[in-house]
Amino acid sequence: MSSELSVKHLLGIKYLKKEDIELIFKTADHFKEVINRPIKKVPSLRDITIANLFFENSTRTRLSFELAEKRLSADVINFSAASSSVKKGETLIDTVNNILSMKVDMVVMRHPNPGAGIFLSKHVNASIVNAGDGAHEHPTQALLDSYSIRERLGEVAGKKVVIVGDILHSRVALSNIFALKLQGAEVKVCGPKTLIPKHIESLGVGVETNLKAALEWCDVANMLRVQNERMDISYFPSTREYVKQFGLNLPLLESLKKEIVIMHPGPINRGVEITSDVADSDHAIILDQVQNGVAVRMAVIYLLAAKIQQ
Q1: For domain 139-289, which CATH number applies: 3.40.50.150, 3.90.228.20, 1.10.10.60, 3.40.50.1370?
Q2: Is 18 annotated as a binding residue?
Q3: Which of 114, 142, 182, 238 has the highest count of CB atoms within 10 angstroms of its CB?
């Protein structure tokens, strides 16, 4: 197994090889052990400076990256576009060049425009980690999701995973499809027809519009929230209607003839895509996902930093 990544940036899962994912997980296993120690810090990246550029609101992802960076002893600069010169009309490249002139080695960026990370990687001399670009990709979320499945079920290969909800606007769905297929899992998507992209089958995934049938098929259900903030029209009659057809509740879960694992990338709309009694049950690994997110992001940053230091 290679001891280094085949890529210089983490722009999307579609640029990774299966060996890259295996290396990230092996490294994350080590860091998971580190963050459960009394002293949770390692001096690995003491001379690396990382800028977190968030042009879109995010709480969990930003905190998770920040914690991962600090656990590795990196120097961290946080930049939130809402309170920056971007509001005054500064371009993405100017913002980044200003930050790079401060001698930054790595940029973690979330941006509303698909492809922003790729654009950046061509123009600046720092390693780029895509923390979500529009409705395109969110690679570290897909990695931590797969890592959490591997932790609970032993491996990802051969597992049946259904992604339920707003597939159309979800960068989590696309990155998960790429990651799961790369590792040999079977994938289906489930949701209202209006929220399933037209050519999704070309990615090698099945489509199921009946939630119960999807749950009876799967080993793992990843429940996505409806992204109202990305919708300019109504994609289904009402929230109540959505809950009736695609909301996961405990009676439905207990009516299945088998145990399945429930996941959610957060933030949860409790009572919409998933009820509280499911989210807080033993079936759910939602809090494991949060903890694993720090270990996986530590692994990604550590491995990319090794490429910078060569």
Answers
A1: 3.40.50.1370
A2: no
A3: 142
pTM: 0.94
Q: Is 37 annotated as a binding residue?
A: no
Q: Are 52 and 78 in contact (CB under 8 A)?
A: yes
Looking at domain 13-137+291-308, its CATH architecture is 3-Layer(aba) Sandwich (3.40)
Buried-state track 85-120, b at ≥16 Cβ within 10 A, e below 16: ebeeeeebeebbeebbeeebbbbbbbbeebebbbbb
Q: Determine whether the annotation assigns residue 71 to a binding site.
A: no
How many Å apart are CA 110 and CA 116, to the nearest integer? Answer: 8
Summarised one tens digit per residue, pLDDT across range 97-121 is 887 788 899 999 999 889 999 998 9
For 7-18, what is each residue's pLDDT tens digit?
A: 999 999 999 999
Cα–Cα distances in angstroms (integers) from residue 100 to residues 76, 124, 298, in the given order = 13, 8, 22
Collect the ranges in the chain with pLDDT lower than 50. 229-233
Asked whether residue 141 is marked as a ligand-binding residue, the answer is yes
Q: How many CB atoms lie within 10 A of CB 309?
A: 10
Active-site residue list: 60-61, 88, 110, 138
